[in-house]
C-alpha cells in the first residue's frame, strides 16, 4: 500500500516591496495663500450690481417701458465719444490697472505676516509663525544678553533688524554677542527661510 507524501511547509506570505513600504514624501513647505476675501467681495459686489442693473433695464424695456435716463445718457455718451477720446482712454486705463491688480492678487500667495515653518507632513498640514511672534521671541532673547537694557525688533521676510540699547560695554562686543545669541534663537524657530539677523547697538546715554 502506497502512502501520500507528507505535506511540505506552507508558503511564506509575500513580503511588501520597497515601493510599497515607502509612502509619499513630505510636502515642500511654502507660504500659505490668502483667501483675498476683501478683493473677492468687492469684485463680486461690483459685477453683481452692474449685471443686475443691466438685466433689470433689459426686462424693463422689453415689457413696453421707456428706457431710464441713465441708460439713454450712457448710450448717447458712448455714441458721441470716439475711441481716442481722453475719457475713454482714462476709463480703459483704470480698467486695465484694476484687471492687473486682480490678476496679481490671484497669482501671489499674500499673507506676508506669516513665516512658513519646516516639518510639513504628508497630510498637507503646514505650520506657520506670525512675524509678531518671531519678533517677541527675538526681543526676549535680546534682553537675555548681559548689558542690554532695551530693544526694538522688526522681523521681515528676509531680515530681522534688532536695535538694542546697552548700558555698558563696548558696542562691537555687544553686537557680536547679540548676533550669535539671536542667530541661535532664530535657528530654533524652525523656519523654512530664516531671516538674516541685523543687530544695531547704541548706548543708553546717547
The second-level CATH architecture of the largest domain is 2-Layer Sandwich
The profile of the biggest β sheet is: 3 strands, mixed
The beta-strand count equals: 5
Tell me the number of helical segments per DSSP (H or I, 4 or more residues long): 6
How many separate domains?
2
Can you tell me about this structure?
46% of the residues lie in helices and 15% in strands. It is an alpha+beta fold and 206 residues long. The protein folds into 2 domains: 34-107, no CATH class; 116-203, ANL, C-terminal domain (GMP Synthetase, Chain A, domain 3), CATH 3.30.300.30. The longest helix is centred in the N-terminal third of the chain and has 26 residues, at 37-62. A 3-stranded mixed sheet has the order 3-4-5, covered by helices on one side. A two-stranded antiparallel ribbon has the order 1-2. It is built from 6 helices and 5 strands. It is elongated, with a radius of gyration of 33 Å. Helix 6 links the parallel strand 4 and strand 5 (196-203). The termini are far apart. Helix 5 (131-143) crosses helix 6. Mean pLDDT is 78; it is low at 12-27.
Amino acid at each position: 500500500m502506497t502512502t501520500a507524501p507528507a505535506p511540505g511547509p506552507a508558503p511564506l506570505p509575500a513580503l511588501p516591496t520597497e515601493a510599497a513600504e515607502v509612502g509619499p514624501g513630505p510636502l515642500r513647505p511654502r507660504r500659505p495663500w490668502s483667501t483675498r476675501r476683501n478683493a473677492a467681495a468687492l469684485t463680486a459686489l461690483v459685477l453683481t450690481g452692474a449685471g443686475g442693473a443691466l438685466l433689470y433695464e433689459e426686462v424693463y424695456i422689453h415689457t413696453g417701458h421707456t428706457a431710464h435716463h441713465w441708460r439713454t445718457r450712457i448710450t448717447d455718451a458712448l455714441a458721441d465719444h470716439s475711441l481716442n477720446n481722453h475719457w475713454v482712454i482714462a476709463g480703459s486705463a483704470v480698467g486695465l490697472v484694476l484687471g492687473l491688480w486682480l490678476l496679481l492678487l490671484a497669482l501671489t500667495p499674500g499673507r506676508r505676516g506669516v513665516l512658513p515653518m519646516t516639518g510639513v507632513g504628508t497630510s498637507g498640514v503646514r505650520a506657520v509663525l506670525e512675524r509678531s511672534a518671531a519678533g517677541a521671541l527675538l526681543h526676549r532673547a535680546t534682553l537675555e544678553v548681559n548689558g542690554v537694557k532695551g530693544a526694538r525688533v522688526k522681523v521681515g521676510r528676509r531680515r530681522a533688524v534688532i536695535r538694542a540699547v546697552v548700558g555698558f560695554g563696548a558696542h562691537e562686543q555687544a553686537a557680536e554677542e547679540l548676533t550669535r545669541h539671536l542667530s541661535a534663537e532664530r535657528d530654533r524657530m524652525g523656519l523654512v527661510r530664516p531671516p538674516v539677523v541685523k543687530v544695531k547697538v547704541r548706548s543708553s546715554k546717547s
